[in-house]
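Case 348 in the screening queue. Each case pairs one protein sequence with one candidate compound; here the compound is 2-acetamido-2-deoxy-beta-D-glucopyranose. For every case the pipeline is the same: read the inputs, emit a complex structure as tokens, and attach any notable structural observations.

Predict complex for case 348.
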Amino acid sequence: MNFFTNFQSFLLTIILLLPFVYCQNIPNPRSQQTSSLIGNRFYFFSGDLSTTDYYNNSAANITNEVWYLDLSSSFNTATPPWNKDIEMPIGYILSASCVSPIDNSVFLIGGLTFIPNTAKINLGSSPVYVFNSTISLWTTPNIIGFNSSFKMRNGIQPVIDNYEKIYTFDTTSMTWSTLAISANAPPSLSSYTATLLPTGIIVYIGGTKTRSDNTEEPVSMYEIQTFNTKNYNWSTKVAGGDNIGTRAYHSAILTQNGDIIIYGGAMWNDSTIPATPYIAKLNTSSWMWSIPNLSQINSPQLSYHSAALYGDYMIIAFGQIPSKISRSFISLNNNLYILDIKSYTWVT
Ligand SMILES: *[C@@H]1O[C@H](CO)[C@@H](O)[C@H](O)[C@H]1NC(C)=O
Ligand SMILES: *[C@@H]1O[C@H](CO)[C@@H](O)[C@H](O)[C@H]1NC(C)=O
Ligand SMILES: *[C@@H]1O[C@H](CO)[C@@H](O)[C@H](O)[C@H]1NC(C)=O
Ligand SMILES: *[C@@H]1O[C@H](CO)[C@@H](O)[C@H](O)[C@H]1NC(C)=O
Ligand SMILES: *[C@@H]1O[C@H](CO)[C@@H](O)[C@H](O)[C@H]1NC(C)=O
Ligand SMILES: *[C@@H]1O[C@H](CO)[C@@H](O)[C@H](O)[C@H]1NC(C)=O
Ligand SMILES: *[C@@H]1O[C@H](CO)[C@@H](O)[C@H](O)[C@H]1NC(C)=O
Ligand SMILES: *[C@@H]1O[C@H](CO)[C@@H](O)[C@H](O)[C@H]1NC(C)=O
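Case 348 output:
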């Protein structure tokens, strides 16, 4: 090998390294990640990087990466302020994280855990992971009251209240309790969103429910299950208003004035069909749906994504692009979208 060949390979190395170094600051597209807003940072935990696992679970690639967006200063959505944080002990999908309103610790509960960067489910893992974002430390607390009768679950969305209770896990004592409530309890639900109102009521929107013969059906957008965390009472609110299609794998945020804005998602039994309308608003005092007046064109349609409200901005990240999914290919997103919820315009 002469010098020239060496030099060529040296050049090639540099050329190959440059985009690599650059790309380290941009996360790969992913879906089914868990996310939480912690102060000025929007965190994303884990997710599936695979573009082919929709019909083939063994093709999953569950990353244990943790990324966050620093929202403390303004930025352009073309160059989001991405930062990589310490990785999770496991790969993790299909659940949600709750942020303690008292000390900002993050709890990841339920879901499926994986050996990182594989499709291998990690069976021996702890059912609760806690993240201290101040010092980037993951811990797995000892859990009280967890026994085999508490079935592991995924596709759930827990909420946390002001007393640090995640329904129904008490993070101050790390204790699970099973509420003995049967009155008005809804059937098993999956792929819904759960939003805690300031009144202590949890609002469950969309997803699927299990019929008595164990088959699934979509949850009507006009029969909204609520759970009152003050008196442990389930009740069904009958909603009205605009025509809102059923959906799963969508997201929901609560605005300051008590509206729940839902975004995205897909048909419960066909991930290639985006939910319509992809954005809708529910007034949680009148239980009336309305469709905001925004351009349907040039608007992203995503499912299995993340969304959070920061000020008047709904920030949407990652997820699948239903209209571009086929049997053999899952189109994943790593663009960032920001909706100004005062004017219902997409901003950059
Ligand atoms: C499923 O994915 C695995 C891992 O990528 C691959 O080995 C296998 O051939 C795939 N099966 C099918 C039916 O495509
Ligand atoms: C995070 O760690 C710091 C330093 O040990 C500690 O002061 C803080 O209370 C921890 N926060 C949480 C939420 O545990
Ligand atoms: C998973 O994705 C990472 C990052 O793209 C890649 O390095 C790794 O080889 C992938 N693993 C599998 C099993 O596909
Ligand atoms: C599991 O927990 C439930 C609810 O706390 C309790 O009723 C049941 O007795 C426990 N089962 C075992 C085997 O400990
Ligand atoms: C509980 O909800 C039901 C409707 O599902 C309602 O009739 C009942 O009054 C509620 N009870 C309390 C204590 O709020
Ligand atoms: C999906 O469910 C809808 C009803 O919600 C039904 O009309 C449709 O035929 C189903 N599609 C498939 C592919 O099963
Ligand atoms: C919700 O509906 C109530 C009753 O119609 C109305 O007074 C209130 O202004 C509405 N809230 C918002 C945020 O529009
Ligand atoms: C909806 O938006 C369009 C375009 O911005 C505007 O022309 C129209 O008047 C709006 N409609 C309503 C009911 O506000």
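Case 348 observations:
- The chain has one helix and 31 strands.
- The pocket of 2-acetamido-2-deoxy-beta-D-glucopyranose (ligand 4) is lined by residues 145, 147, 149, 178 (CB under 6 Å).
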